[in-house]
Structures are given as C-alpha cells and as structure tokens.
Amino acid sequence: MKRHDLIIIGGGVGGLVTSSVAGQLGLDVVLIERENKLGGDCLHYGCVPSKTLIRSAEVAHLTRRAGDFGIQAGEPVTDLGAVTDRVREVIESIQKHDDPERFRGYGVDVRFGEARFTGPHSVLVNGTELHGRRFVIATGSRPAIPPVPGLEEAGYLTNETIFGQRELPRRLGVLGGGPIGLELAQSFARFGSQVTVIEMADRILPREDPEVTGELQELLREEGLTIHTGTAVERVSVENGERLLHCRQGDSTMTVPVDEILVAAGRKPNVESLDLDKAGVAVERAGITVDPRMRTSAKHIFACGDVAGPYPFTHMAEYQAGVIIANAVFRFPKKVDYRVVPWVTYTSPELAHVGLTERAARDQGLDIQIARFHFRDVDRALAEGTGQGMMKLVVHKGRVAGATILGPHAGELIHEMVLAMQARVRISTIAAAIHAYPTLAQVHRRTVNSVLSAQLFAPRTRTLVRWINKLLP
Ligand SMILES: Cc1cc2nc3c(=O)[nH]c(=O)nc-3n(C[C@H](O)[C@H](O)[C@H](O)COP(=O)(O)OP(=O)(O)OC[C@H]3O[C@@H](n4cnc5c(N)ncnc54)[C@H](O)[C@@H]3O)c2cc1C
Ligand SMILES: NC(=O)c1ccc[n+]([C@@H]2O[C@H](COP(=O)([O-])OP(=O)(O)OC[C@H]3O[C@@H](n4cnc5c(N)ncnc54)[C@H](O)[C@@H]3O)[C@@H](O)[C@H]2O)c1
C-alpha cells in the first residue's frame, strides 16, 4: 500500500501554499480540490472579484464627482455585464498562477474531486482510497444563511453568485454590515442601485473601533446608502414581483421593498463533507479545533485558513500554511503568533487595523496613550479630495500596541504600523524617520508627533531649554 507523505484537501490559498512548498522540497504530495479549478474563494468568489468590482465602482463614483475636480462629466451609466466581464478577465489572468500544471511541475499530484476521510490515515476521492502519513485540511468556508422564514423561497445572492450578475438591481437589500456586506453595498450604490443594509448588531463592522465605524457609517449614508443597525429581518415575502424584507428594530417594525437580496451575514466552515469523525478530528461551530502548531485533535492532521479560523483572511491562511510547513515538513515545532495581524475592509475610505483597539487595550488593563490625526489635516489627502477619516494609535510604553486607519489607501498605509509592531520600533523612531512630502504616509509621523509633542512642549522641557540658552553663549 502506497503511503503519501502529505495529502492536502482544498486548493485555495492554504492548500496551494502548503502543496507548492512541500512539493518543491521533494515530498510526495497529493492536492485534492473539489471544484474543477484551483484558487479557492479568494480568487473566484472573494478578494479578487470584490476588489475588481470595487475599482469599477470607484470609477463610477469619480465620474459622478468629476465636477468637484473641475471636469465636466455626466451621470455615469453602469453596464454591469461589462463590469462582470472585467471581473472575469482579472480572475482569468490571476488563474494562470494557479494552473494545475504549474503544481504538477513542482511534483504535486493534483486531483479534482471531493475528498472525505475513511480513517485517520486515509481519504476517498473519486472512488480511490489514498493513504497518507500527514494531512492538511484547507477546505475554507461558505456563506452562512440565516434561518429567516421566506428567504429561501424569495431567493437571494451571495458572494458565490453576485459576481456573475449582468443586470443592475434597482433596489438591493443587504443582510449584514460586515466587510462583505459593506464592500458590496457601497459598490452597488455607486453603480446606481438603491441599497439598504440591514445589520443586526447596534453598529456596522462590530469588531472595529466604534470611533471610526461611526465616521464610516456617516460617510456611507452621505453617499446615499440606507443603513439600519440594531435591525433584524424577521421574514421575507414576495408580492407583485418584489421582495419584501419585514424587519424589526426594537419595538418598531418596517418593510423594505427590494429587487434583489444579498446575504453577507457571516461564514460557515466547510467541514460537513469530510467525515471528520472517521479521522478523529474535533470540530466546533467556528471550525476545526487546532493547537498553536495548527495540529487538529489528530496530531498528524493539520488545518489552516477559514476552516480553522480565527481570522478568515487570505493572508492568514498563507501565514498558517507557513506554520504547517515548519511543523509537518521541517518537523520544527513552530507556533502561531497572532499579536500583529492586520486586516482591511475595502470600503471607500478603506478601514485598516492592526493590533489592539483602545477597548481591548483598556480591557487588558494596559496604561495606554491614544493618538489621533485626521486626514483633513494631511495635505496630500486634501489635494486628492480624500480628506475624510482619521488614524488612531494605541501607544503602550512608547511603542505601538495597535492602530486603526480610516482613510485613503488605509490598506497600504497600515503596513508601516505592521512593521513598527513586528520590529518593536519605538514611536520616537517613527517620528525621527523622514517621511516624504506630500504623501499620505505623513499621517504616521503626524499621529505619533501628537503624542511626542506633549512631552516636547511640557513645562519641564521648556524650563530646561530656557536654562540651556541662558548658560550657553
Ligand atoms: C466576498 C469576499 C471578499 C473577501 N475579501 C478578502 C480580502 O480582501 N482580503 C482577505 O484577506 N480575505 C478576503 N476574503 C476572505 C478570503 O477569501 C478567505 O479568507 C480565503 O479564501 C481563505 O482561504 P482558504 O484556503 O482557507 O479557503 P478557500 O480559498 O475557500 O479554499 C478552500 C478550497 O477547498 C475546496 N474544498 C472544500 N471542501 C472540499 C473537499 N471536501 N474536498 C476537496 N476540496 C474541498 C473548495 O472548493 C475551495 O477551493 C474575502 C472573502 C469573501 C467571501
Ligand atoms: N477585506 C477583507 O479582508 C474581507 C472582505 C470580505 C470578507 N472578509 C472575511 O470574510 C469574513 C466574512 O465576512 P462577512 O461580512 O460575511 O461576515 P462578518 O461575520 O464579518 O459580518 C457579518 C455581519 O452580519 C451581521 N449579521 C449576522 N446575521 C445577520 C442577520 N440575520 N441579519 C442582519 N445582520 C446579520 C453580523 O452582525 C455581522 O456584522 C469576515 O469576517 C472577513 O474576515 C474579509
């Protein structure tokens, strides 16, 4: 009986990173993917289509705002079919990197079919039983559909279907004010749909700092989105061809008529088809349980990415895959370190975050300083017409403990703070670094200086400066 070194289930980012590295290192690797293409959610139904769509929406928005820049242009007309074609083209050009032949060239045996465990060391795919010494489960997640009466009958879109739409809905109802809901809600509003977001929690993006989500919510409202927070959809009905969202907000009720519904109410791990009990792999509601070395309850089986959590991002699946390579291939006992994890919500303006929020730091009892700086005081942002938002910094013992940026290109800007945290750089070093003028990156120095200037201009320093200047010629 042939025993492969490593059998990897799932051809998304987690599975692709582990299989390409293990294959190139000479291990006997099998990669199993149930769709007929590699790339997973990120490439086909997630990051890539959403960011491509967002770019088209931005063009529509800029066209609408052209007058603000002294350029005459009419109201933009969205051809959603053409937008969808562009999304497809971008996916196809990136898909070339995920060509199965490329992986076969690394020595990986790529198989298409659904895998399920038949025992702790065996899986079944397309009727063939494969045996392995170690396994990686990287099967990702799918949309969680809330059990709202009438929703199934009314029909709805998810991230798996929305990027194939060719007709712009006149009215779009979005269930969920998380990253997926808001990125798509704003894009469709910019395309010209009337968009209503229904969020169950009392604010959008409940995991983010409330100071910046409040500002983002206001900006989205100014752009024409209707956002109902603290609101539950209790029932959906279809009357005269329109879908009606029957909602409750506290004691009051309302009905929102829409043409399409987008469900973006969270994710569910893809575990059901795996027969994990046959392999002795424990699973909870949030996903497969893993230890800090990404090992499941069966120590020769690893899991990474959305199926394991706790952070459902592409860069996290890639990071965790690296930890699995260390443990399963190099046999080095490496553990995950989640202290410096950035993430970005690609609304406009973008919202980027790393490390502790103010609330989390205070809950930990840390003696922190908070620094803020607004993009309305960043010259480049004004020149660009993007002076909304702010940077908020959590400083602990002279170092960055966390940062949140709501502003233009926040997803790019956050990485100076990522590096500062990773390298444990003092904020005085950030202040000392020359930042080119006029860049948006000046926001870092200016935010940090707002803490340091309090020390610089403190009475003690002023007295010292007076004495030095009296004593020295
Ligand atoms: C709309 C949207 C936008 C997003 N935007 C971003 C973003 O901007 N930035 C970011 O970092 N993250 C983003 N994400 C999240 C990101 O897509 C995921 O975190 C990432 O794809 C997780 O990678 P993965 O390898 O864990 O799973 P996936 O990429 O989902 O891959 C899992 C693969 O396993 C396969 N599979 C499942 N079960 C089986 C089985 N039994 N046998 C064989 N194969 C199986 C699936 O077909 C799939 O191809 C977004 C997600 C969505 C939905
Ligand atoms: N830019 C990015 O990195 C990016 C983009 C999209 C998605 N993602 C990842 O994918 C994950 C899933 O995104 P998501 O937005 O679907 O999930 P989410 O869990 O982040 O947000 C879902 C939102 O829906 C709300 N909700 C849940 N049930 C509801 C209901 N019945 N009615 C109304 N509101 C309801 C929740 O309160 C929550 O705010 C995210 O956690 C994120 O990490 C990342």
UniProtKB/TrEMBL annotation:
The keyword NAD appears for this protein: yes
Disulfide bonds: 42-47
Record-annotated Pyridine nucleotide-disulphide oxidoreductase dimerisation domain positions: 341-443
Protein name in UniProt: Pyruvate/2-oxoglutarate dehydrogenase complex dihydrolipoamide dehydrogenase (E3) component
Family matches, as Pfam families: Pyr_redox_2 (PF07992), Pyr_redox_dim (PF02852)
UniProt KW keywords: Disulfide bond, FAD, Flavoprotein, NAD, NADP, Nucleotide-binding, Oxidoreductase, Pyruvate, Redox-active center
Cofactor: FAD
Annotated organism of origin: Natronocella acetinitrilica
Cofactor note: Binds 1 FAD per subunit.
Keyword Plastid assigned: no
Binding of NAD(+), residues: 176-183, 199, 266
Similarity comment: family membership: Belongs to the class-I pyridine nucleotide-disulfide oxidoreductase family.
Annotated PROSITE patterns: PYRIDINE_REDOX_1 (PS00076)
MF annotations from Gene Ontology: flavin adenine dinucleotide binding; NAD(P)H dehydrogenase (quinone) activity; oxidoreductase activity, acting on a sulfur group of donors, NAD(P) as acceptor
InterPro entries associated with the record: FAD/NAD-bd_sf (IPR036188), FAD/NAD-binding_dom (IPR023753), FAD/NAD-linked_Rdtase_dimer_sf (IPR016156), Pyr_nuc-diS_OxRdtase (IPR001100), Pyr_nucl-diS_OxRdtase_dimer (IPR004099), Pyr_OxRdtase_I_AS (IPR012999)
SUPFAM superfamilies to which the protein is assigned, alphabetical: FAD/NAD(P)-binding domain, FAD/NAD-linked reductases, dimerisation (C-terminal) domain
Binding annotation for FAD: 51, 139-141, 306
Record-linked PANTHER family: MERCURIC REDUCTASE
All residue ranges annotated as the FAD/NAD(P)-binding domain in the record: 5-321
TM stretches of this protein: none
